Prior knowledge:
Elements: H1 2-21, H2 29-37, H3 44-49, E1 51-53, H4 62-73, H5 76-87, E2 103-106, H6 111-115, E3 123-125, E4 130-132, H7 136-144
Amino acid sequence: MQRRRGARLTLFSFRCGFDVVDMWWFMYRYELELRVCGRAEIDVDLLKRNTEYDDDVSENEPSIVWLWEVLEEFDHQQRCDFLRFVWARAHLPPTVAEFRQKFKIQSPVTDGARQTPDLYLPKAHTCFCTLVWLVWLLLCFFIGS
């Protein structure tokens, strides 16, 4: 009996929170899920439109073009894994307007990674949604294919 009362109180509080928004009853279940969780399917074009490039990285570099092509070919789970690697989350915000932080691609900062990139792995800063991109990845792709 005590559990049921606790659950009712929780649901009541949840509903009261939506009364502030004053629109919760107009939303279908999938709209509510979209607003709370974000898009389940990862839209690569949406991510691409919300990407900034470091000063010494160009979106036209062959390795960056290849990155976007590979992301397009990934299945849903692989895209989720990529997003978790760079941003520690599995969903994108639903719209461009809701991106609080853009995805950033930058080149390595240390001289070692710049001079001998084949000794380093890609690195991400999940708090800043940043991927430190290494050009050698393109070479690995061509050597492996």
